[in-house]
Automatic annotation (TrEMBL):
SUPFAM superfamilies: Dimeric alpha+beta barrel. The lineage of its organism: Bacteria, Pseudomonadati, Pseudomonadota, Alphaproteobacteria, Hyphomicrobiales. One of its GO terms (molecular function) is monooxygenase activity. The keyword Oxidoreductase applies. Keywords: Monooxygenase, Oxidoreductase. This is Antibiotic biosynthesis monooxygenase. It comes from Shinella curvata.
Length: 102
């Protein structure tokens, strides 16, 4: 995948704040994809049986794009406003095998 950076995050959200978290996450993803050329993909899903468990799959053009993303106002807003909602966050090391989209 060249110099691309692929990240996966495993989060657990306070169930009482799940709707507010999802709204802030959706806002952050929309802004990131629209405003940042180096953000190639951001996907968020929740586990059906335990919707407070959220997984994010992120693809960046390169390390510089990833680092730039972390410093954007929309990402910093998301991190600040969701800090008390996130019960746990693990960044999982991943290696892409094959990633196609249509």
């Amino acid at each position: 995948m060249g110099g691309r950076i692929v990240r996966m995050a495993d989060l657990e959200i306070d169930p009482a704040q799940l709707d507010a978290y999802k709204a802030l996450l959706a806002e952050e993803i929309e802004a990131s994809v629209r405003l940042e050329p180096g953000v190639l993909m951001l996907h968020a899903v929740s586990i059906d049986e335990t919707p407070e468990k959220v997984r994010l799959l992120e693809v960046y053009a390169d390390e510089a794009a990833y680092q730039a993303h972390l410093a954007t106002p929309h990402f910093l807003k998301y991190k600040t406003q969701t800090a008390a909602m996130v019960r746990s966050l693990r960044l999982l090391p991943v290696t892409p095998i094959r990633m196609d989209a249509k």
